[in-house]
Amino acid sequence: MTAPTAPVGPLTWDQVGERFYETGVDKGVLYLNDGGVYARGYAWNGLTTVTESPSGAEANAQYADNIKYLNLVSAEEFGGTIEAFTYPEEFSVCDGTAVPEAGVYLGMQSRKTFGLSYRTRRGNDVDGNDHGYKLHLVYGCLAAPSEKAYATINDSPEPISFSWEFTTTAVAVGTVGGTLYKPTSIITIDSTKVLAANLTALEAELYGTADTAPSLPLPAEVIGIFAGA
Predict the structure, then answer these.
(1) Cβ(157)–Cβ(139) below 8 Å
(2) Rounded distance, CA 92 to CA 11, Å?
(3) HSE on the CB side for 150, CA within 13 Å?
(4) Chain segment 10-60, per-residue pLDDT in tens
(5) Three-state DSSP string of 89-130
(6) pLDDT at position 171, please?
(7) Structure pTM?
(8) Cα dist. 147→102, 164, 196 in Å?
(9) CA atoms of 21 and 92, how far apart (whole Å)
C-alpha cells in the first residue's frame, strides 16, 4: 500500500461541495452468528442510535538508560451502545432470553454473539443529506444486560427506549492483496468513494434479494467485492 501524494499548492478551506458532515442512522440489520458465519439477517426496525466506542490502543511508556526508551501500545478494542424503540424477535437469544413456548420468555439465559450493519448519511453543502452514505459492518458482538424503564402513561407520553451495551471479539481478515491485516470488528464503506456496481453487490448480500437470504460477509469477502474478486 503506497502513501497518498500530498497536493501541490496552498491549502484552501471550506470550498463549495467540500463542507462534509455525517448524520442519521437507518437500515439496521441483525445477523445471527452460526459457527462463525453470519448467514441469517433480520431487519432491525426502530433503530434510533448506534454509538461506537473504541477503547485501548493506550501507550505504555518503557524507560531505559535514563530516557524514555519506547512506547508499547495496548490492544485496541471495539464496542458500543445500541438504542432502539423495538428489536427483532430473533435478538432475544442475543439478549439472554430463551423462548421455550410461543409467547413465553425466560430471562438470564446464555447470550449468543451477533453481527450488525447500519447506514449513516454523508452530506455536504451542495447535496445536503443526499450526498452519500456509509455502511457500518460490525462483527463478534456480545450484548450486556440492559436496563428497561417502564413508566406510567401521562400527558407527555414517550415510547420506551431500549438500550444495549455491547463488546466485540475481532474476526480474522488475513492476507488480502499481498497485505496481512490484523483481525477487526468494524468495517466502514463510503458510498462516495467506491464503484456503484461493487456497492450494489455488497448490499445484495447484506439485505438479500428475491433469490438469496440476507447475510453479513466476512472481512476478506467484503474487501474482495471491492477489489473486483
Answers:
(1) no
(2) 52
(3) 0
(4) 988 989 988 999 999 999 999 999 998 999 999 999 999 999 998 888 889
(5) HHHHHHCCCEEEECCEEECCCCCCCEEEEEEEEEEECCCEEE
(6) 95
(7) 0.90
(8) 24, 8, 41
(9) 35
Q: Does residue 228 carry a pLDDT above 80?
A: no
> For 185-218, what is the HEC assignment?
CEEEEECCCCCHHHHHHHHHHHHCCCCCCCCECC
What is the average pLDDT value for the chain, to the nearest integer?
91
Q: Are 185 and 169 in contact (CB under 8 A)?
A: yes
Who wins on pLDDT, 132 or 8?
A: 132
**Distance (Å, rounded) from C-alpha 72 to C-alpha 79?**
22
CA torsion 97-168-166-139 (nearest 10°) is -70
Q: Coil, strand or helix: which one is 16?
A: coil
**pLDDT band for position 1 (cuts 50, 70, 90):** low
User: What does DSSP say about strands 37-44 and 67-73: parallel, antiparallel, or unpaired?
Assistant: unpaired
How far are the Cα atoms of 40, 96, 140, 215, 216 from residue 34, in angstroms, in the given order?
8, 16, 11, 11, 11
Task: State the distance between the two ends of the chain, measured CA to CA, in whole angstroms.
Answer: 18
Which residues make beta-bridge pairs with 53?
A: 79
As a residue count, the chain comes to 229
pLDDT-derived band at 179, boundaries 50, 70, 90: confident
The owner of cell 466485540 is 168
Res 2: pLDDT? 62
